[in-house]
Amino acid sequence: MKQLVLATNNKHKVEELKVMLEGLPVEILTLDAFPGLSPVEEDVDTLEGNALKKAREIHRVTKLPALADDSGLEVGYLNGAPGVHTSRFAGENASYEDNWKKLLHDMLGVPARRRNARFRCALAFVAPGTEQIVEGICAGRIVESSRGRNGFGYDPVFQPNGHSVTFAEMSDDLKNSLSHRGHATESMKPILHHYFSRS
Length: 199
Ligand code: IMP
Description:
six-stranded mixed sheet, Maf protein, 6 strands, binds inosinic acid, alpha/beta, 5 helices
């Protein structure tokens, strides 16, 4: 069977992507299958640039088709921050909780109508003879206090539009059907189907 490497060390992203890619005629490998690889530095100033950098690098070292995600949270009140710096909003080694606590703190007293935010995901696929990049967006708002225990990252403080619960209060299936990563994966699936059914 043909193989596809998920170019991420984030276990939560791996779990979500594996479920969303079920049904593709391909074996999904994770970076655990390649011990000793150095992490790819995310030093480009766009999500698209970082996703492409990760997919290119993992394709180069594994010689296999690679899929990489780079995601960010863009908060209207913060003029689009933290954006590309989402994972280190509260500092270089900040935990998920440190990050969302800082966000709630920075937005203390901000009224409901100014709490809009969106998650954006850039998903890059690199394989011999092809480089493809797609985007997925999920619009919503930053709630006043954290709710829920599912998911990861900013899930306890992000409520997607049209729902009264946060990502962290939803089932995995519901989150995947609405999320930025879910939308990007849906756009990427036909590209992957086409690639793996011809090569
Ligand atoms: P990166 O794509 O690995 O740079 O991750 C950016 C950061 O965005 C992660 O560390 C998470 O904090 C956050 N993030 C990305 N996707 C999600 C999500 O689906 N839910 C909550 N937080 C997320």
